[in-house]
Design brief:
Elements (H helix, E strand, L loop, with lengths): L5 H12 L22 H8 L10 E6 L5 H12 L4 E7 L2 H14 L4 E5 L13 E7 L8 H10 L1 E12 L7 H11 L6 H14 L14 H4 L1 H10 L8 H10 L3 E6 L13 H7 L4 H12 L4 E7 L15 E3 L4 H7 L5 E6 L2 E6 L4 H5 L8 H10 L4 H16 L4 E3 L4
Parallel strand pairs: 1-2, 1-4, 2-3, 4-5
Antiparallel strand pairs: 5-7, 6-7, 8-11, 9-10
Helix pairs in contact: 3-4, 7-9, 15-16
Length: 414
């Protein structure tokens, strides 16, 4: 695990001193950290199109597993749902490994394998192939992100997919300015603890005109402890990607973007009601549309994407046997909370979007429990007085609205 260059050595020292994110194994008794990518329901839906059987073992890799958020989440979800397979944690930080192992032990998880190493060494490592690979918050720190993504693709099984998170520039306004300041005050060659102490002092003295003080969507330096502050403001190497830059990186590895999470955020029509503007957006390709949404919103600090080699077929929404599942939502509770006007207010990092739902949305949502197939749900709605035609139309409208929010997905078939 030789460092690729002096900056890479500094990066390795950082994550030994401050495993990221800061986690305490005792907290596992209180909560499971849930997020994207690598939520099992999302993998089933966005990577496999809701068509890969739940009984088929899933081999997953967490490339740059850090203190274990993704590994613990996916391994716990697989255990809870009785899903066969295993999760391989891979990282070069010994301290991060200790934290992740302690968290797994606290939960009694038996389906995580721990491997020491760099994802850049995956080709020829003997690891893999993997059906699913997570690389969250890693590529943008590498000496050559394209080399890193190619290394991941080299161990991806046919039909599999990759979940990534990379930084995005507009929502990180102010971050790189303070990084420049701290390179002058606390050079990367100094010890991590000394750099953290200086960064804390600078943040206290930073004037109100500093752009980061005006950015409410970035708070790792405030809420993330020393590890969060270091990762945000003292990281010796990070770069941010616009959507077109990310698309180019992905294409260079022979992959494609199957989904940007959440799709609704990347649709400029979510924010633009002017018909003349919409006439212009209609002529843009999907990447350009996403780039426009990114540029006009200004609050995207990260991009989360699922990548595949081939186009993923649309989820089987119209098949009676398909089982809809709400991601971290309770169907009956959501149905009861809907406004009389049928509009669902959604917030993305301070940006509010009004999502209209169909008339039968409450009746449909109340019957979605993650186990009942569409056929039975529709039968129940029709038995309650709706016509079959209206139930089908409203089902399709509900899917269109909530799949784009990454909230209504198709469960893996039994």
């Amino acid at each position: 695990m030789t460092a690729r260059d002096p900056t890479d050595a500094q990066l390795a020292a950082q994550y030994e001193a401050y495993p990221y994110p800061a986690r305490d194994a005792r907290d596992e008794a209180k909560r499971l950290v849930i997020g994207s990518p690598s939520h099992l329901r999302e993998i089933d839906h966005w990577v496999f199109g809701g068509r890969r059987p739940a009984t088929q073992p899933l081999r997953a890799l967490m490339a740059g597993g850090g203190s274990g958020d993704g590994s613990i989440m996916l391994a716990q979800q697989m255990t809870t749902l009785g899903r066969p397979g295993d999760v391989t944690w891979l990282d070069r930080s010994a301290q991060a490994k200790r934290v992740a192992q302690a968290r797994a032990a606290a939960r009694g998880l038996q389906n995580i394998r721990f491997e020491d190493g760099s994802l850049l060494d995956l080709p020829g490592s003997g690891l893999g192939p993997f059906d699913y690979i997570d690389c969250c918050g890693v590529l943008h720190h590498l000496p050559d992100p394209a080399e890193g993504l190619a290394a991941l693709a080299s161990v991806l099984a046919p039909g599999g997919g990759i979940g990534i998170m990379v930084y995005a520039p507009h929502g990180r306004t102010g971050v790189y300015i303070l990084q420049d300041a701290l390179r002058l005050l606390a050079p990367p060659e100094e010890a991590p603890a000394a750099r953290v102490e200086l960064a804390k002092r600078l943040w206290k003295q930073t004037p109100e005109t500093a752009w980061l003080r005006k950015n409410p969507w970035i708070d790792d330096h405030i809420k993330g402890g020393d590890a969060g502050l270091y990762d945000l403001l003292l990281n010796p190497r990070d770069r941010a990607y616009t959507v077109p830059q990310l698309a180019a990186l992905v294409a260079g590895a022979g992959l494609r973007i199957a989904c940007l999470v959440e799709p609704l955020r990347y649709d400029p029509d979510s924010y633009l009601a002017d018909p003349k503007l919409r006439a212009r957006t209609a002529g843009l390709d999907p990447i350009a549309r996403a780039a426009l949404a990114e540029a006009i919103c200004g609050n995207m600090g990260i991009h989360i994407a699922y990548l595949t080699r081939d186009r993923v077929p649309p989820a089987p929404w119209q098949e009676d046997s398909a089982v809809p599942v709400l991601r971290e939502l309770d169907g009956p509770a959501l149905a009861r909370s809907l406004r009389p006007d049928g509009v669902l207010p959604v917030s993305f990092d301070g940006l509010r979007v009004a999502v209209p739902l169909p008339r039968l949305a409450a009746a449909l949502l109340a019957r979605i429990d993650g186990a009942t197939p569409w056929g039975a749900i529709l039968d129940g709605v029709v038995a309650a007085g709706a016509s079959r035609e209206q139930a089908l139309r409203d089902r399709d409208a509900l899917v269109h609205a909530m799949e784009r929010m990454n909230r209504l997905l198709v469960a893996a078939p039994a």
